[in-house]
Amino acid sequence: MSEASSVAELATAVRNGTRSASEVLEAHLAEIDESEPSIHAFNLVTGDEARRQAAAVDAVVASGGDPGLLAGVPVALKDNLCTRGIPTTCSSRILEGWLPPYDATVVTRLREAGAVMVGKTNMDEFAMGSSTETSATGPTRNPCDLSRVPGGSSGGSAAAVAAGFAPLALGSDTGGSIRQPAALCGVVGMKPTYGTVSRYGLVAFASSLDQIGPFAGSVADAALCFDVIGGHDEADSTSLNRPSPRLLSVIDDGVEGMTIGVLTEFLDGADPVIAERTRMAAEALASAGARVEEVSVPEVALALSAYYLIAPAEASSNLARYDGVRFGLRVDAEDTVAMNTATRSAGFGAEVKRRIMLGTYALSAGYMDAYYGKALRVRTLIIEGFSRAYQRCDVLLGPTTPTTAFPLGAKVGDPMTMYLSDVCTIPTNLAGHPAISVPFGTDDGGLPVGVQLLAPALAESTLVRVAAVVEAAAPGWTGTRGVGS
Fold this sequence. Notes:
CATH class of the largest domain: Alpha Beta
Helix content: 25-40%
Structural class: alpha/beta
Distance between the termini: 9 Å
Number of strands: 11
Radius of gyration: 21 Å
Shape: globular
């Protein structure tokens, strides 16, 4: 792997003809060929399709046209984003053989911007997991240490960027599934405000929580990707009808005069080295001109319990459509009920079944108000708690994860321990707010540490300004990842 270029530099080189999209693609495919067998970031590498897309970009350049902001930039897609005529499996047996008849809106926007899709990345089955170990295709390994998990559920996308397989990747974040793997793999991961990026074509887990966002090697690259995929979409009823901000135009504006709140609840449960890195990030922001103070949002302590009622309840409803009739796997039986049962039994893994059963119980007659209804009221309390904090602070700071990457297999037998991996990220999803994880050094064993920045709804512009300052102060920061520069 050679010295890296930013995504903007790479796209500019392709647009002005100093590099070809095909050359850029082949460099990344060579990296995939060399290292993918040991990492398993992808469920499918779409080399032939990517070559066609790269050739089309080069043809536009040759004719004097402009292919777009991401001209020739390889992008990896989480395997729950629909791609027309290309398998979309959600890493589940139940979607084996399914070819979507349409592209997700974010996929369309990437293509219109000249990006080249290199493959569909591995993930926890139906995005239910925190380590990419529930995938029906087997686990992804962390490129920083192959004995460790990459996080989840978007572990394949995080690993793809960390390994240099693609400068950008898309994931989905329901309870931290972009930010947590970004922290464990040492890359930038951003969860935008709910409704700012279209969910059309995203296979739903929990519809009121899911949000698509970018993985990148730098804050600027993530911001550029958001600028491309964000904005209103009439095909998504939850899409906000407002112009998407252009983050790159403000990313270098600094933090002078801002107030940053260090979230004490997140620090309390974090490993000492992660807490120390978070304090170092706070000191860097203070040195850059921000006012830094400790802030308490006690309601976030309730988030994990509320999330594991709301998300499984919505999943129970969303996954009812996989019945052996319309999609993917079908296990034949003597009648329709037996066929449905046999198909779902064979098609879903243990974690998905666990969450469907939890959600179905929480929505059942006699229990819905006691469980699901109460969880929704707790969600409102969390939103109100954040609102009070944002009356004092522009942005909140805390760890992204309570630990660095843990060994493969260490938590698969203990669901509650696994669920705690997302304790710092879940509150933001319940509130619908934006957040970003930025690499900030390593622990004593050389594993990446991520710090998290949280902001009020629609404050992505403020968020990336602060994130850029944190990134610049990060110990050992070497810039963006990439190949073929």
